[in-house]
Amino acid sequence: xxxxxxxxxxxxxxxxxxxxxxxxxxxxxxxxxxxxxxxxxxxxxxxxxxxxxxxxxxxxxxxxxxxxxxxxxxxxxxxxxxxxxxxxxxxxxxxxxxxxxxxxxxxxxxxxxxxxxxxxxxxxxxxxxxxxxxxxxxxxxxxxxxxxxxxxxxxxxxxxxxxxxxxxxxxxxxxxxxxxxxxxxxxxxxxxxxxxxxxxxxxxxxxxxxxxxxxxxxxxxxxxxxxxxxxxxxxxxxxxxxxxxxxxxxxxxxxxxxxxxxxxxxxxxxxxxxxxxxxxxxxxxxxxxxxxxxxxxxxxxxxxxxxxxxxxxxxxxxxxxxxxxxxxxxxxxxxxxxxxxxxxxxxxxxxxxxxxxxxxxxxxxxxxxxxxxxxxxxxxxxxxxxxxxxxxxxxxxxxxxxxxxxxxxxxxxxxxxxxxxxxxxxxxxxxxxxxxxxxxxxxxxxxxxxxxxxxxxxxxxxxxxxxxxxxxxxxxxxxxxxxxxxxxxxxxxxxxxxxxxxxxxxxxxxxxxxxxxxxxxxxxxxxxxxxxxxxxxxxxxxxxxxxxxxxxxxxxxxxxxxxxxxxxxxxxxxxxxxxxxxxxxxxxxxxxxxxxxxxxxxxxxxxxxxxxxxxxxxxxxxxxxxxxxxxxxxxxxxxxxxxxxxxxxxxxxxxxxxxxxxxxxxxxxxxxxxxxxxxxxxxxxxxxxxxxxxxxxxxxxxxxxxxxxxxxxxxxxxxxxxxxxxxxxxxxxxxxxxxxxxxxxxxxxxxxx
Length: 753
Ligand code: LUZ
Ligand code: MOS
What we know:
The chain is an alpha+beta fold and 753 residues long. The strands form seven sheets. The chain has an eight-stranded mixed β-sheet with strand order 3-5-1-12-9-10-11-20, sandwiched between helices. Strand 17 (440-447) and strand 18 (453-457) form a beta hairpin. The chain has 20 helices and 30 strands. The chain folds into three domains: 6-117 and 167-259, Aldehyde Oxidoreductase, domain 3, CATH 3.90.1170; 266-434 and 589-750, Aldehyde oxidase/xanthine dehydrogenase, molybdopterin binding domain (Aldehyde Oxidoreductase, domain 4, 2-Layer Sandwich), CATH 3.30.365; 440-580, Aldehyde Oxidoreductase, domain 4 (2-Layer Sandwich). The radius of gyration is 27 Å and the shape is globular. The structure holds pteridine-2,4(1H,3H)-dione (LUZ) and dioxothiomolybdenum(VI) ion (MOS). Dioxothiomolybdenum(VI) ion is lined by residues 191, 223, 226, 334-336, 338, 502-503, 707.
């Protein structure tokens, strides 16, 4: 089935926050943000701004009726700065005017003086100075100390990865208006409607029942709107609430880039131990997470780094620890992969390091150490339904690895200034929120008296196609045509207490809740049909093709007749479905448990060509074998694979989030921050579906597909590194594991010693 949003997107008729027609009297908000990264506010004068024509009011933290607090996991983040500022771009004041231009002009009439304090942008420096956002954690299995004593080869080093700007096409924004009886309604571009509802209620000092959040869709989220849509919604709600008028705030691109957090940059140290056959017997890593100025989702992100620190490899002795370091950057946040990519980059670096020193191919070490069923992850979960080796072997069958390697060698021998390189990248990603209590969901289904169906879930459509999948489920369950089903907006008064659409788990969680709701209605109809037709209770009833087929009846009933019959008998044709992922648990004291419903597997093979005069590179091809389970929508899933892959390649090769040492964002626009475009994507992407049929924890056995493919992009880094070494054999020692591998870095490595 085609994505139900395709037509709207292509014709420009899909509705985003900024497209909602504004009501008369709507006020517009501009945010006045910190012009330094750390300091004490000594003077702040906005009287001139407030007197300007069109300006209605300037809000400071003193105007907040409830709590000036938006921290989701840890209460460490004010909505508006009070006495100190902790990052460049931190919101301090809100200028409210009758139009955006007046608000913008008034920004320039605000006078602030700040006594600057020392700025930290490096997590290792923060670590040494004892600046933490949250508790350090350690995952451990076996005994690395003993294992390193027995290891034949030991390699140590460090690997750093950079931040990443989400660059959702739709910037952050919200539109709020007062409703009756002291309540408020907010349209927010958020992955987490409930998170927005909770934050707004806290900031306004009112009950959550007075706050209605509605989300039609997002123009992308990628994690950037899991928690960080809340402040803009809270500001908009604050203004609307206090002034009793509709209020709107939609950030401009540069404001968004400056004020919001990004993927966490990490600095990391590793130590890897191998036996004489190159089995990895021990692995240690220490991760220094650059959390920025407030905790935001950092504790959860850091946890996933530890969960994925060994990627797809079976390592008996592991000790990995992580520190959440506090720096003067905007609070870094969720980004597709959620700490997992940062963890995987480090073990891939360690393997690369070992391969260079041992003079063997990376893939020989990778292949030898792939996980098997029965292996126990360092966090205690036992590997089941493992497809790590199947994906690898399937890839090798389709694209013989040794053959490709030989071709590359031949090419490199025959070309002086063009060099090719390749890399394999296996991925194993755990599906479920690592915070067990977040893994639940609900859905609301109404069958109307004309036989059409309305579906509400907690899922937020952000381009990933979840609404299409939800629609498919309802259509399949009731045996109706897609045109009979309507997907409603995501709304906190219809579906409450939701988890954000995140963790690749949205289709699973909401799909299973939807299945439950449909089943309840079907059960009532079946019951009615058994009684009415004198059938045995339990006789098979099938909903198919707009008809209802009954075991023991020659002719099927027509769907609409069944519906009308049910209403005549006063049967409830609405249902609220619920789902809570079974089996999962995790003990944070012991750091052991079974946190994931299942794992997603895959392997990618990336080939690149480096221009050894210019330092530029082209991605020739990426071949992927990916474990989709039984895909319920191959086109939507393929889109996720290709989008994730390219986003991962961007993170690893070209997207460079640069702050200067005063904490000012230098890459603050699309002219200075480069994401992959049609010219830089791989010339060829071949994705092969590995159909597996063993996972009942996935909706219709269709496995989660949102985040795992991002990590295939890590292969690009190592493929480029290999090409560099083909040109400059001295490069290995001088080629630091420091992503992104920008052309500048490639050039340095090509000619460095
Ligand atoms: N968000 C979250 C996530 O709150 N918990 C998670 O485990 C997670 N994983 C991936 C992406 N977002
Ligand atoms: Mo996410 S990083 O699944 O919001």
